[in-house]
Every structure is written in structure tokens, then in C-alpha cells.
Amino acid sequence: MAGFTTLAKVKEELRIPAADTTHDARLTTIVAGVNAYFFGLFQLTDTDPTSYTETYDVLDFGTEGFWLVQYPVVLATGVTEVKFDGTVQDADTYYLGRPRPMGLLCFKTSAGAPFSLPCGRQHIEVTHTAGWAAGDENLVALCGAATILAAYRFNTGGSKLGLDSEKIGQYSYKLAAGVAGAGVGAGGSGRGYLPPDVSLILGGLIRPFAPGS
Predict the structure, then answer these.
(1) Backbone dihedral angles phi then psi of residue 38, each to the nearest 5 degrees
(2) Residues 47-65: pLDDT tens digits?
(3) Of 33, 42, 97, 200, which is most buried by a Cβ count within 10 Å?
């Protein structure tokens, strides 16, 4: 499974020599937590393009679309199949709303008129591909953000909460001051705080609402 950051990347960010394994156990735990956090933001199991099949509830009459659970949608593959109670639907009757990678699946009749989905629980099954192609600029940005966040968590964990600067061995690290209103999770210091650079990157790439909304 491809992740967003690695132990080696975080040690490089912290300027810890690769041969220095003093903090490896703690850093490995932090890296696992940061990767899990980023995967949770997109509801993914891998950064590589992966096919997902989910069933969906439609509880309001007149609904014409819904958000796919996993995103961003890989547009080269997109939505590969939609079923209503086991019946495969014509691909001409659904499409991705803009911005398309965010995964808003919309429906219409073959004539182009609005379409009302069948109301109820677990009537609709969708298979689509989500993730990023290798080298995708958004994935590169997210990997950088994950590495920054892991380094930040290392320097603010335990008794180091609120640390401004640190020097251990041959490396040193200084945290930027909190910037209120910089984006997702920004503003003030503490365990729930995201560094401004991380907030700005995530703010442009994640949905502005909780998963499942």
C-alpha cells in the first residue's frame, strides 16, 4: 500500500541522519498515524488508483445525485458501473458534477432531463476508481504536507507540546507560530493544530464537509 509519507522522509525533514535510529520507534508510530489521517480525509485505502464498490442510501425524494465516498475520482477510469437494485444503468444517465475529481455523481434521463433517484437504503451500488496517478502534482503536495505534519507532531508531542525550537545531536528544528484562519485546522497551537502550510494544501484539495455528508 502506497502511503503519503515515510520514516525516511520525515527524518530528512527533521534533519536526523539516516543512521541515527534513536527516535525511529516514535517516528514510525507518528508516520502511521499521519498516513491514516490523510487516508481518512479521502476515505481511501491506497494513494494509487484503486477500484471501490459502495452501496448508497437515498433518503430524500427528488434527489438527483450524491457524493461518492472515495475521492478524488480518477477521471481516466471514472465511474465504471452503477446499479439500481442489481440492474446496471446506462452510462448516459449519470455523470460527474464539477469539479469532477471531487466525486459528485449526478443523474439524468437519456433525454437530459433531471432524474429522481430511487429512494431508500442500499438501493444503489457504484463502482469507481479513486486515487492519484504517479507524479500527480496534488499527490506530490499532499505527500509534502504529510511529511511536514509528521515532523510537527514529533516536535510537539508529550512534554514538547508548544515547543518553539529544538536541538538534538546534529539537527535543529524551529516551529512556525500559529496563524489564525489559515485553513483546515489552523489557528493556535496544540495537539489538534495543523501547521499553516499543511492547512493551505489540504484546504484546496479536500471537500469542505465531513465524510458521508
Answers:
(1) -70, -40
(2) 999 999 999 998 877 678 8
(3) 42
Contact 171, 47 (CB under 8 A): no
Q: What is the number of alpha carbons within 13 Å of residue 116 lying toward its C-beta?
A: 6
- What's the mean pLDDT in 138-157? 94
What would the pLDDT profile of 63-89 be if each residue is shown by its tens digit? 788 999 999 999 999 999 999 999 999
The three cell numbers of residue 79 are 465511474
Single out the residue of 166, 168, 175, 159 nearest to residue 22, CA to CA. Answer: 168
Compute the residue count for the chain.
213
Output the CA torsion 189→138→30→43 (10° steps): 100
pTM for the predicted model, two decimal places: 0.79
Count of CB atoms situated within 10 Å of the CB of 137: 8
Q: Is the pLDDT of residue 93 over 80?
A: yes
